[in-house]
Design a protein that fits this description.
This protein has about 200 residues and is of the alpha+beta class. It is built from three helices and 14 strands.
């Protein structure tokens, strides 16, 4: 009986871990300097395989770097909302709906606005929260949420890590913890219930 209980617990944990890990894509952001056009390029890989790119300008000193959107380049397949945030902040619809001081709002029709720069002190990192989606009328329909951790070593701006959730529900900055879609949450609840029934049956 104890072996059956252990096996049930292992299968449940495997199911939950596998389910949750499939909701997060890591290292989805790329960063590089385009010497021909003289700007930096920030690119995303989204779940449907489409690439989303944004041009950024960087002004740096030995003590800090300042990133600003470059209005000359951006892919039109999706719109993006970008906002500086803190570690472990929930990045979801509510964060962007109630926020001000956007690093950038870029819409698929090519319209862009910016309210704040992204500043990185040397040997520190900052988190940039983003939403990728479509724009209809005055509403931004986010399909995925994610984060990028930028660092600066006194010479170069670089990406420490990045992640994108595939549920459309949200993710915590700097982590792989996502807000599960309803079907995944239901699966976890059912697994817990089965495990509880097994445990009561054994005792």
């Amino acid at each position: 009986m104890k072996k059956k209980l252990c096996l049930t617990g292992v299968l449940f944990l495997f199911t939950v871990v596998n389910c949750y890990s499939s909701m997060v894509q890591w290292n989805i952001a790329g960063w590089g300097y385009n010497s021909y056009f003289d700007y930096y390029m920030l690119g995303f890989t989204v779940p449907d395989g489409t690439g989303v790119g944004r041009g950024l300008d960087v002004i740096s000193t030995s003590m800090h770097a300042v990133l600003t959107p470059n209005w000359e380049y951006g892919t039109l397949s999706y719109g993006t909302l970008m906002l500086q945030t803190d570690y472990n902040t929930l990045i979801d619809h509510d964060l962007f709906a109630n926020a001000t001081g956007f690093f950038e709002t870029y819409l698929p029709n090519g319209m862009s606005t910016s309210e704040a720069n992204l500043e990185i002190d040397v040997y520190n990192t900052v988190f940039l929260a983003f939403a990728i989606g479509s724009h209809y009328g005055n509403d931004f329909d986010a399909l995925w949420y994610g984060w990028i951790e930028f660092g600066y070593n006194g010479k170069n701006v670089y990406i420490v890590n990045s992640a994108l959730e595939t549920t459309g529900q949200g993710i915590y900055a700097g982590t792989g913890l996502v807000v599960p879609e309803p079907s995944a949450a239901l699966l976890a609840i059912v697994g817990l219930a089965v495990l509880g029934l097994r445990r009561r049956k054994v005792t």
